[in-house]
Amino acid sequence: MEFSPFRFFILFLSFLGISYFMGMLLHSAFMYEDKHNMKKDSPKGWVLCMMAGTGITGWMFYYGYYVNFLR
Fold first, then answer.
1. Which one, of 1, 57, 2, lies nearest residue 24 by Cα?
2. Which pTM value belongs to this model?
3. How many CA atoms lie within 13 A of 51 on its CB side?
4. pLDDT for res 35
5. Is 54 exposed, middle or buried (0-12, 13-18, 19+ CB in 10 A)?
6. What are the per-10-residue average pLDDT scores of the chain (71 residues)?
């Protein structure tokens, strides 16, 4: 079976892992600069960085799918 449920599970786990670490990179890059309207430990800043990390990772996964299967 080429597309087994275990393969999708591993793909989902890798997506979550890469999204989390991409969000951590964004958080450390943006939140430790001089921001007058948002503190370093702001939950709003954390959520925004994690959403941006998920979006970037989603784009990377979609682009990889597009290049390998749709062209």
1. 57
2. 0.77
3. 6
4. 66
5. middle
6. 84 94 89 72 87 94 85 70
Determine the angle formed by the axes of helices 5-30 and 43-65, rounding to 10 degrees. Answer: 130
pLDDT attached to residue 37: 75
Other CB atoms within 10 Å distance of the CB of residue 10: 11
Q: What pLDDT score was predicted for residue 6?
A: 92
Q: What is the DSSP string of 7-66?
A: HHHHHHHHHHHHHHHHHHHHHHHHTTS--SSS-TT-HHHHHHHHHHHHHHHHHHHHHHHI
Name the 3-class secondary structure at 69.
Answer: helix
Domain that holds residue 54: 5-70
Instruction: Specify the number of domains making up the chain.
Output: 1
